[in-house]
Amino acid sequence: MATAMQTPPTLTSPVLISSKEKLKHSVKRKRVLISASLLMCTLQLLWFASKCIHQIDADAISYTGIASELKQGLFHVSINGFRSPLISWLMAAIPGLPPFQSGKLITILTYAGSVVLLYAFTKKLWHSDVVAGFAALMFVVARGVAFDAVALISADFLFAVLYTCLLLDIAGLPQRRSPLVPAWLRSWHSFPGEGVRLALVKPQRHLYGYSIAAKRYALYEKPGRSVVRIVDPKAHGIGFLYPPKNSEKGWDSEVPEWIYEMWEYIVRSALGLKAKAPGLGRRPADDAPQYHYI
C-alpha cells in the first residue's frame, strides 16, 4: 500500500524577512519624502504667487529691459560685462508673453527643475532614494528659496539646472543620451578612449570656506593651527567699487591685495584666532573700529 509522502513546510530565512521589511520601510520613507517635497513646493509657490508674483527687483528690471530690446532686434545690448545674457535670450524667445512674465515663468520652472535634478544627483551619489528625497525636501523648505523663485527674475536657478546636469554627467549618469543633458555639455570634458572624467590640472588640496551671504565668501587653506591662507576671496559687498588703497608693487593677483587682507581679518576673527584689522584708512570700506560688512 502506497504511503503519501509529506513535504516539510518551507521556512523563510529571518535574514530574508528582515531585508524585505527594510525594503518596505525604505519605499515608504521614499514616498513620504517625495510627497512632502512636492506638497511643500506646490504650497509655497502658490502662496508666494498670491503675494508677490508682480514684485520686481533690480535684476528683473535689467533682464526685462535687455529682453525687450532683444525683441526689437538689438542683440548687442545683451552682451555686457555684468549680466549673463542667457536668461534674457530665453525671455525674448518665448512667444506670446511679455518679457516680464516670461522671466517669472523661467525662474519658477528652473526652480522646480533644480529640485528634480538635486534629487537625481543625490541619488546618484548615495544610491539611496531616502537620502535623495531628504535632500530635495531640505532644498524645498530652505528659507527664502521658493520666495526668490516667485518674487525675483534670476539666473541663479537656471545656472543651478545647467550645472547640476553637468555634475550628473560627470558622476556617470547611465542615460548618457538623455535629452536632459545637452550634447555640448556632455562632451566638452570628454577624452577619446577614457570616457568621462575631470581633467585635474592642479594638485588637490584641502580647502575651507567661510560665507557671509551668497556672493560674500572666501575659500582658504589652514596649513597650521593658527595659520590661515586666503585662496579665493570675493570682493562683492566689501567696498570693491571704491578701493580704499592700491596693491603693493609686484602684486600678481587679479584680486586687489586689500581684499585678501580684509578676508583674512574676517576669517581669523570667525575662527577665534588673533586678527589684525587691515589698515585701509578712512575710506568707505573702513569704519574703524567696526566695518560695514560686519
Short description:
The protein has helices at residues 14-52, 58-71, 86-93, 99-126, 129-141, 145-151, 156-170, 183-187, 257-270, and strands at residues 190-191, 195-196, 208-213, 216-224, 227-233. By secondary structure, the chain is mostly helical.
Molecular structure report:
This protein has 294 residues and is mainly alpha-helical. The chain has 2 domains: 25-196, no CATH class; 208-270, no CATH class. Helix content is 49%, strand content 9%. The chain contains 9 helices and 5 strands; from the N terminus they run H-H-H-H-H-H-H-H-E-E-E-E-E-H. It has helices at residues 14-52, 58-71, 86-93, 99-126, 129-141, 145-151, 156-170, 183-187, 257-270; strands spanning 190-191, 195-196, 208-213, 216-224, 227-233. Strands 3-4-5 form a 3-stranded antiparallel sheet, with helices on one face. A hairpin with a 2-residue loop joins strand 3 and strand 4 (216-224). Helix 2 crosses helix 3 (86-93) and helix 3 crosses helix 4. The longest helix is centred in the first third of the chain and has 39 residues, at 14-52. It is globular, with a radius of gyration of 26 Å. The model is unreliable at 188-201 and 285-294 (pLDDT under 50).
